[in-house]
Write a structure and sequence with these properties.
This is NarG-like domain-containing protein. The longest helix is centred in the middle third of the chain and has 32 residues. This protein has 278 residues and is mainly α. The protein is built from 13 helices and 2 strands.
Length: 278
């Protein structure tokens, strides 16, 4: 099986792409292990070093977390697990009460990011299943995912644009933005835009330029390829490869090494504290 992504017009094989994915997964797991070790040593926040001379045990830390999570003694809010998960983690109630604009930004990024991640995992599982000999129309399945993939991409893009706008037009947010935040945002925008361009290029290369019904959203290929400029037709495989690599390593493997880790630590903290607000 060949992927659309490639170099010099030649598509990469499934084995090559799976090797790249394996490297990304390894880096993610390795980073999470490093973070767990730091937390077990007493680090209390992103970028903070553990307490000097203190040794930590990852297993002991996980056991302690689980004990606190399931305990009903000495809790902060006493809210049920499911209520905390739905209201404070999924719906981000505390952020909504603090700032409606920031809540909208967070929700769009959260839904878009996690939705695209879920679709990627679903497609990966389908490809593995197909390779193992379970026969079904893999191309039809891939095509079925194109519409939700496009919608989620726009949801994520709008969320990121709101994040950029807040940093440009709100003085307090702008003052608290450092170069690290800016680089992350710019990189994320490149990932999203390259994804739209690569997706549009697939249709141009395949000669599919007429859509109807819900698929009319794919007419956006004219926007992302500037009306079908030859450059995008020539280098669409390279653009797709750039998107795949950046998405894997910036949007996935880089999570434990960056501020993106708050997507994991914040829910864990809220859940162990039994919620945020009444």
């Amino acid at each position: 099986m060949d992927y659309f992504s490639g170099i010099a017009g030649v598509s990469l094989t499934f084995v090559v792409m799976m090797s790249v994915c394996s490297i990304a997964i390894f880096l993610l797991i390795f980073g999470l292990i490093l973070d767990l070790r730091k937390w077990a040593q007493g680090a209390t926040g992103y970028g903070l070093e553990p307490e000097e001379g203190k040794k930590g045990n990852i297993i002991a830390f996980i056991k302690a977390y689980w004990k606190q999570l399931t305990s009903h003694e000495g809790v902060h809010h006493g809210q049920s697990f499911w209520k905390s998960l739905i209201l404070d983690v999924c719906l981000q109630r505390r952020t909504f009460r603090a700032s409606k604009g920031r809540w909208l930004m967070h929700m769009l990024i959260f839904v878009g990011w996690m939705g695209l991640f879920a679709l990627s995992g679903l497609m990966f599982a389908a490809e593995i299943t197909h390779m193992l000999g379970v026969h079904f129309d893999i191309e039809a399945f891939r095509e079925m995912l194109q519409f939700p993939n496009q919608i989620l991409g726009y949801i994520l893009l709008i969320g990121v644009l709101i994040a950029v706008g807040r940093r440009v037009f709100i003085p307090k947010v702008r003052q608290n933005t450092n170069s690290y935040d800016s680089v992350l945002l710019i990189t994320l925008i490149i990932v999203i835009v390259s994804g739209f361009v690569a997706h549009a290029g697939r249709y141009i290369v395949a000669g599919v330029t007429d859509f109807s019904g819900l698929d009319m959203i794919f007419y956006d290929y004219k926007i992302w390829t500037l009306g079908g400029v030859q450059f995008f037709n020539t280098y669409v495989k390279e653009i797709a490869l750039t998107h795949s690599v950046l998405a894997l390593f910036i949007g996935f493997a880089f999570i434990p090494y960056s501020k993106y880790i708050h997507m994991i630590t914040t829910p864990l903290t809220i859940l162990v504290n039994k919620g945020g607000e009444k």
